[in-house]
Design brief:
- By secondary structure, the chain is α/β, with parallel strands linked by helices.
- The strands form three sheets. A nine-stranded mixed beta sheet has the order 8-9-7-6-5-4-3-2-10, sandwiched between helices. A four-stranded antiparallel beta sheet has the order 1-13-12-11, with helices on one face.
- β4, α4 and β5 form a beta-alpha-beta unit.
- It is globular and about 55 Å long.
- The two termini are 13 Å apart.
């Protein structure tokens, strides 16, 4: 790996961006009202800098983006739903998007989109008049440069329940945003409070109902397992084989578990398209790292929680990637699949990472540095063929379909079966890897120890 540092990185990156052909972009919005206890992402509470940040972000995008029509755009954070409507209008106006191949095929991109009785449910925690942050929206507010009726890219915006309202969601829908990723984390109020979340379980459900009534069809939620005090319910109907779900033996023997199953039940009842599950990892620079919480489930219990969730959510949801479940293939995250398929993508904003023309890069995580010069990068590395092979295998095994041996052989001029014969044989015999029609994939037991297995493939 060849590392390049500023200021040379700036010029090198400009070259890498030119005609890269990348059709995905990630944008980082680093603002939060409050830092969650487990969060290691780059975020700040300086909300008074949002306007200035959008100006710097605009400068960066205009300098590096080569106008290639995008297939996916993902606006993450932080808390993007802290932005005003005008900020989203500005961001979306900076990009070209691929045009429809099947007119009218995407419900979320119809120019005639309108609210479907947005107060048909009991949104008692919401105040539609709360517009200090998100000014009232009308159809006339859509930028004239955006013809949303002809686009079919996947455009995702992350939102938090406490910072989104009817005006913002309506505006995003009419601007062409067709996927929401909602940071729910848990449907237990005590756990939400213990990890520093600002919303309640009711507010989380309310924002999901509101988004559905507005017209959002592709809604994903994030849930975390292994949280302080989090347990599973081994005394419920699941023990009796409800839905064909089986509890791991170590869990069934413990008998007094609550919460995790209840959160999964709530998620399953909400008519969602997509669910992402993440095990709690306490990382440096988090509040939990500085002050470790009590009553944390150990690694074995976390693994049991994951296995329980897979059994509980199937067959309504299919596990298509280690952490991700979707109702149908239609709702697979196209943006994230581009990552796992080792595709190219732009990264814009503080701490954002990208991959273009065999080069990985990451912007500075220092807020002052970015605001002084949004074109500066912290790291820029040109990958060797061996490193590219390692990444292709690592990312490919994250997908439930696994890796495609023929494609790897053609891409890297190797014989995969011969190169990794001993490793494959050992893990197939142990039940952690299995053969597929196109190659190999991790079994469920393999997923539980995936880091250990994948480390064996690294050059």
């Amino acid at each position: 790996m060849q590392n390049i540092t500023p200021p040379k990185a700036e010029k090198q990156l400009k070259k890498q961006f030119t005609n890269s052909g990348a059709k995905s972009a990630y944008i980082h919005i680093p603002f939060c009202r409050k830092k969650c206890s487990y969060c290691a992402f780059t975020s700040f509470g300086a909300l008074n800098f949002i306007d200035d940040y959008i100006k710097k972000l605009t400068k960066e995008i205009k300098y590096f983006y080569d106008d290639t029509p995008l297939k996916t755009l993902y606006i993450g954070g932080g808390t993007p739903s802290l932005l005003e409507i005008k900020h989203f209008e500005k961001i979306l106006s900076l990009f070209n998007f691929e045009k429809q191949t099947k007119p009218g095929s995407n419900k979320g991109f119809q120019a005639s989109a309108h609210l479907k009785n947005p107060l048909s449910k009991d949104y008692t925690d919401y105040n539609p008049q709360k517009t200090a942050q998100n000014n009232a929206f009308t159809c006339d507010d859509i930028p004239k440069s955006l013809d949303i009726s002809i686009y079919t890219p996947e455009i995702t915006v992350e939102i938090n329940p406490e910072s989104a309202d009817i005006n913002l969601l309506s505006a995003l829908y009419k601007m062409g945003v067709n996927r929401l990723s909602i940071g729910v984390q848990s449907f237990d109020d005590d756990i939400l409070k213990s990890i520093g979340r600002l919303h309640t379980a009711k507010k989380a459900k309310d924002i999901i109902f509101l988004a559905q009534d507005i017209g959002f069809e592709n809604i994903s939620i994030d849930l975390i397992y292994g949280l302080p005090g989090q347990k599973m319910n081994a005394k419920s109907s699941v023990l009796a084989g409800n839905g064909g779900c089986k509890l791991p033996q170590s869990i069934a023997a413990q008998g007094d578990f609550t919460y995790w199953e209840e959160t999964l039940k709530e998620a399953k009842s909400l008519d969602l398209a997509h669910i992402s599950l993440y095990g709690l990892k306490i990382e440096e620079n988090t509040l939990f790292y500085k002050k470790p919480p009590k009553h944390l489930p150990n690694d074995d219990i976390q693994a049991d929680m994951y296995e329980f969730a897979v059994n509980f959510l199937e067959p309504e949801f299919s596990l298509y990637e280690i952490s991700n479940f979707a109702k149908t293939e239609k709702y697979y995250s196209k943006h994230n699949l581009n990552y796992w398929n080792d595709g190219q993508y732009y990264g814009f904003g503080i701490s954002a990472a990208g991959f273009l023309n065999n080069t990985r890069y990451q912007n500075t995580k220092n807020f002052k540095e970015y605001m002084e010069n949004p074109l500066i990068t912290k790291d820029l590395s040109i990958l060797t063929p061996e490193e590219r092979l390692d990444e292709t295998i690592f990312l490919g095994f994250r997908k439930r379909e696994g890796i495609n041996v023929k494609k790897i052989n053609e891409k890297f001029s190797i014989d995969f079966n011969e190169k990794y014969e001993e490793i494959l044989t050992n893990f197939i015999q142990s039940g952690h890897i299995e053969k597929t029609k196109t190659g190999y994939r991790l079994t469920l037991q393999g997923i539980l120890v995936s880091n250990l297995i994948l480390s064996e493939f690294l050059c």
